[in-house]
Amino acid sequence: MIKMEIVYFEKAGDRNTDDTIALAVKRAKEAGIKYVVVASSSGETGVKAAKAFEGTGAKVIVVGHAVGFSKPGVSDAEEKYVNELRSRGVPYVQQTHALSGVERSISRKLGGASRVESIADALRSVVSVGAKVCVEISIMAADGGYVPVDDEIIAIGGTWGGADTACVIKPAHANNFFDLHILEIICMPRDKSRE
User: Measured between alpha carbons, how far apart are the two ends of the chain, in Å?
Assistant: First the structure.
């Protein structure tokens, strides 16, 4: 039997960013986890995490929105944050979203929801938006070769900005999605509504 503490935030959102990162650092140190994947569309949360994980021995990988997510041909990343990440040796990954990608194009054009988008919606509804983000960025980091698929990692995600969810995950590639496992929830919001 393993007993672990899970922290539940009263509300979702970026108000929980600093606590989420601190809890993730604590768990990484306890478990000796060497890879941390952080969702950060602008790069700001990624910089906060990179600073917090300095000296822990964990490698931080920041995953942003794919270029064109909000507007065709445009990156949501802010240059000042991406430059700071690079100066710290932290990769900033932008690639096709694992739980939407081409599937979203089909559903937008033809209607309905794809099977892949249904997985994303189920994770959002059943667990939390942040948990869906943690799963997705873990796949994206694995597909980019930034994290091993045979080791546990920590993933940090959020609900509409910042961070409010952290999980220990055994990642997998997109083509082996069902080999991915959420092993632990470190923290997440109880009230998942958007304010």
Answer: 38
